[in-house]
């Protein structure tokens, strides 16, 4: 077992967290091919992203409170098993309907990984240190959006879209083995008395009444919506509008993702020096600035894909800064309910992300505007929420048990 508080455990948690982005990003280059192979519409294929997020949202409501009661490790193992079953069905799906259903199961399994890794960090660390750890995890996890589309573009070109899900399945099986062998139990919670459903509802009620939690939840959710506007629209826009091949799309997507890693590393460096509020302000400014620059890029040079690169990297740097730090700040008041707080936060994010994905999917056509407008609106909303909630968020962080 790895010792709590070591970088080795941080790296392990980051690699586990990367499983979700792998399941999302590796198959993105294959979306147009899936559309053709399964005789589906673009909106139906995009629905495979949205139902993944819905499964992710529903799963997150369950795993955190259960892990507060029974421990992080056994619940994480069960979640990974569900993820692998869903992935296996994805790889063999004969119709678009079957693929959509399997993606929901896959998302429900992946939900446990992200919820429980965040809860484990809260079990081990306090305050800005937790923000630093989540940022470092984000930097390691950020390799997945770089590597996954490249792998997906290659596998799509060489073997077809089903092989990508086989790669994801192998990663899921490996994760089960790693968790069983190396992950320690970190939960501080004792089993609460009373009926588990009553305890779950009580935990969510306590979390949902905390104004600081809600303020950080709003900031995290707004930035997450922009990220999924990009994820939902990028494959169709970059391949359909700008004419990239699956492999070229993977390379471009991976290059842009360097912005996310830069943001997470910046967050890890500045949060212990400047605190949550100022660090989040830097990220919110990058989100709004990147989104507005993206509108300008598409407006003034609609056919030049190169002009999208810098604005998107700035936007993703903002996401990399804001998401880990807002999550750490939101979870801080709940050392005994870290699982429930993580579930609450993740579920809201996924529901909003799924809704944005559906809207983008139905609005997609012969231009990049639906995706770009969604990104810009989310960036500006994040900045406005940061400004509007300053008084609530800068109150002293006090643990609530």
Taking the alpha carbons of the first and last residues, their distance comes to 29 Å
Task: Provide the helix percentage.
Answer: over 70%
Measured by DSSP, the beta-strand proportion falls in: under 5%
CATH topology: Growth Hormone, Chain: A
| Topology pattern, helix = H, strand = E | HHHHHHHHHHHHHHHHH
Low confidence ranges: none
Return the average pLDDT rounded to an integer.
Answer: 86
Could you tell me the number of beta strands? 0
What gross morphology would you assign? globular
Biggest sheet statistics: none
Task: Describe what is shown at a glance.
The chain is an all-alpha fold and 401 residues long. It has helices at 7-17, 19-25, 31-37, 42-70, 72-92, 96-124, 127-141, 143-159, 161-182, 196-208, 211-241, 246-256, 258-300, 306-331, 338-363, 369-388, 390-393.
